[in-house]
Design goal:
single chain, alpha/beta, Rossmann fold, 7-stranded parallel beta sheet, 9 helices, globular, binds NADP nicotinamide-adenine-dinucleotide phosphate
Length: about 250
């Protein structure tokens, strides 16, 4: 096996379940070291790491709540000791706390903003200096169609996800000359536990409005991530993978 310090090191936040797990598996090949970050789901994270290793890849699970800057610091120190600098950063971890705005309290607002948006500040602050020094980096932020269309009961989530798109474009301007690309992906409704938590009648109503007439698969988002990693001339863009739900 190639020395793990010579491989591209990829951090997938929230890589233990759903879309993040699919991204970890898509990239978990001989060319990458994959860090499967998780907050609570150690078993799921270990499972993904084992699958990657059994396919001949290098991977490690690391617990850290990415909403907290100090935990991100510890996460990157652990990665650095094992694999060296992160050259591909996938900010995927996210949560919902849906409630109509009039009923939403500040805790529910802050939880979603901190986990879905401030987390990108936390991880990019640490990862970017080395990417710039190495003249190579890929930052991909998983936003949402809700950033573009809005979502009933999702003012906190839509604000965070729209924030990620603006953040990506602005950072792309600052980093392009250093070989660092920054893009976002806006998934539509993808079959994961996050979507399974929605009431069935709401889901059926959503599916009836999706031109391809089905939910998306996590693997379809993961392929978009791979495409953006392999593309040096795409930066500041938002890749919509939504079955035509929003055009
Ligand atoms: P999911 O199945 O609920 O998985 C969320 C992942 O994020 C889990 O691995 C979870 O780890 C991790 N996570 C949550 N909070 C964290 C924290 N504070 N620190 C570290 N990890 C944390 O969600 P998903 O559907 O795969 O969504 C993944 C991303 O895609 C999210 O950003 C979501 O907003 C976005 N998205 C999803 C859809 C969709 O239809 N599913 C659509 C558009 C956008 P633990 O289990 O360990 O907590």
């Amino acid at each position: 096996m190639e020395n793990s310090k010579n491989l591209k090191t990829v951090l997938v936040t929230g890589g233990s379940r759903g879309i993040g797990a699919a991204i970890s598996l898509e990239l978990g090949t001989k060319e990458h070291n994959i860090i499967v970050n998780y907050n609570h789901s150690k078993e799921h994270a270990d499972n993904i790491v084992n699958k990657i290793k059994s396919n001949g890849g290098n991977a490690m699970a690391v617990q850290a709540n990415i909403a907290h800057a100090d935990e991100c610091q510890r996460l990157f120190e652990t990665i650095n000791n094992e694999f060296g600098n992160v050259s591909v950063l996938i900010n995927n971890a996210g949560i919902t706390r849906d409630k109509s705005f009039r009923k939403m309290n500040l805790t529910e607002w802050n939880e979603v903003i901190n986990t879905n948006l401030t987390s990108a500040y936390n991880t990019v602050q640490i990862a970017l200096p080395n990417m710039i020094e190495n003249k190579y980096g890929r930052i991909i932020n998983i936003s949402s169609v809700i950033a573009q269309s809005g979502g009933f009961g999702q003012t906190n989530y839509a604000a965070a996800k729209a924030g990620l798109i603006g953040f990506s474009k602005s950072l792309a301007l600052e980093t392009a000359k250093y070989g660092v690309t920054v893009n976002s992906i806006c998934p539509g409704f993808i079959e994961t536990e996050m979507v399974a938590a929605m009431p069935r009648e709401v889901l059926d109503n959503i599916i009836s409005k999706i031109p391809v007439n089905r939910l998306g698969a996590s693997s379809e988002i993961a392929k978009g991530v791979r495409y953006l990693i392999e593309s040096a001339y795409i930066t500041g863009q938002c890749l919509n993978i939504n079955g035509g739900l929003y055009m």
